[in-house]
Amino acid sequence: MAELNITTGNFKKEVLESPIPVLVDFWATWCGPCRMMSPVIEELAGEYQGKVKVCKVNVDQEPALAAHFQITSIPTVMLFDKGTVKQVSIGYKPKAALEAMLK
What we know:
The protein is of the alpha/beta class. It contains four helices and five strands; from the N terminus they run E-H-E-H-E-H-E-E-H. Strands 1-3-2-4-5 form a five-stranded mixed β-sheet. Helix 2 links the parallel strand 2 and strand 3. The protein is globular. The chain starts with a strand and ends with a helix.
């Protein structure tokens, strides 16, 4: 399963109301570290399918969501569980660090 693209319109349903934990990657196309982390996010989406929902928010297309969560540096990855932010990771992280967030 590929990552799910999150917008202001589907954020509540897909992230806040999700029955399983949700990993949200805040990114932008011009961000080098975001592009480096993109394949890792894609791998996690496949490996954790059914256990964790993996989503992406393009901060240029969704500035209101980025502002709401006070995203000042990208990539920023947030782990939501039952509608609450449980963990936040700012900057490029290797796959092992992101997997540690999920455990």
